[in-house]
Design a protein that fits this description.
Helices cover 27% and strands 31% of the residues. The chain is α/β, with parallel strands linked by helices. The longest helix is centred in the C-terminal third of the chain and has 14 residues, at 118-131.
């Protein structure tokens, strides 16, 4: 049973703020703490903002920093919010961290948008964290995936099996 959740935020669409009709944006403050506070969850959590990047700009050095930060955490349950374009690549980099259940999730539309999938994806990720054995997973498009058997289909704007 999950008693405490460590949340590592890296940016991505889930935290984007759009400024005008031309879709100019910035990656803003992590939204997940506000989302969880609004639902009165029955577990403790901490939000560790690691970076604010669009996932297209996350590189091998960033992935190493994410892995190092997760390895250093005292708690076994880790949720990573991440942009969807390179989420799978980061998840694969996190494979093999012993004793931790790690779920990556994000959103195809910013959490600040009314019809965002952010809250739905976060809920699925938290459920997965409580029920899956140690390992790394991706929670998107209503399913929980093995990161070595999933891809983002950009044209259909969803995740699917490879």
């Amino acid at each position: 049973m999950m008693q405490h959740l460590s949340i590592v935020t890296t940016g991505g669409t889930i935290d984007k703020i759009y400024f005008d009709d031309l879709s100019s944006y910035q990656v803003g403050e992590p939204q997940i703490g506000k989302i969880l506070a609004g639902f009165g969850v029955g577990f403790s959590y901490e939000v560790l903002p690691l970076m604010r990047k669009d996932s297209l700009h996350i590189d091998a050095e960033d992935r190493a920093a994410i892995r190092s930060a997760i390895e250093a955490l005292a708690h076994a349950h880790v949720l990573v919010t991440h942009g969807t374009d390179t989420m799978v690549e980061t998840a694969r980099t996190l494979a093999g961290i012993p004793g931790k259940t790690i779920v990556l999730t994000g959103a195809l539309n910013p959490a600040r948008f009314q019809n965002s999938d952010a809250v739905f994806n976060i809920g699925i990720a938290i459920g997965a964290l409580q029920s899956l054995p140690p390992g790394v997973y991706v929670a998107m498009s209503g399913l929980v995936w093995d990161p070595f058997k999933v891809r983002k289909n950009r044209e259909a704007n969803r995740f699917e099996a490879t």
